[in-house]
Amino acid sequence: MKYQYLFLIFMLISSCSSYRTYTIVYGDTLSGIAKRFGTTYQEIARLNGIADPNRIQAGQVILIPDSSGSSTPDPTPQQPSIGKNEKVLAALQRSQWSQKADSLAVAYNTIKSSGYSTECAIGLMANLVAEGNYGIVEYSFSLSHSYGFRLPSGGSKCRTIEDIKYVKSWTTSDYGSEFSKVKKGSCGFGSVQWSYDRRVNFANVCLSIMKKDSDVHDGNWAIAEATFIAQELKGGYYSSVKNAAVNAGGSVEAWAEAFTDRYERPSGADLNMSGTGSACQTRRRIARELYDYLRNSNAL
Predict the structure, then answer these.
(1) 159-187: b (≥16 Cβ within 10 Å) or e
(2) Range list for CATH 3.10.350.10 in the chain
């Protein structure tokens, strides 16, 4: 009876024009959701009875105050289509990027089907061309931990489900709090090594896609990364990347640097959209080459 009563209250509130519902996905944070919908994480937590804003789960349905009167944030939220864009794939297989053709075609399709622009997709692809070490565990150690790090299967590449769980366990071990947890020895997956929350969330995405050891291969790593990036952009990164790209002219080069400065933040990024950092210059060049090649190949 208690749960029926709460359900009726929930339905009554959600039917009012001043609220909407939202289903949480991997990578979401309350602050990111609040930013997308023009409210505060405190208001969302209060409205939904969430005691700890840091503890939310994928699949959880929450109420969002509708302050704008519109039910569509920017960009339009869609579930990404996980697959390869065949025209892009065919073109890339004949290109200098042929070794990464499959993963880039997955990334392009996932980002585009999530509601983002072609320029946005190409800018991201330029960053994946420059990085894109699928399955590689990146790690660093504090001064108090000088011993080496080895996965259960050995080496630095995740090869088994146990490897992925081990990295997640290492990351989430009860040692310090929040970002101080990296003192145990920061380790992550590819481009998500520099943030504690991102490592944990990415491990969860990987485990949702890879269920058995035979699933742990580059194709699924590419799918996991593209899925995770699309979800993170919806969770709040997009506005920062988009604003930087638009303010810099909105070209594919601007989008490539926006991802570099506002999202990936590799060594060599200048972090100020000046195009002076070595990583920024590299990604700008790759973005232009990718865009021109795919456009001339009638793949876009």
Answers:
(1) bbbebbebbbebbeeeeeeeeebbebbbb
(2) 16-73
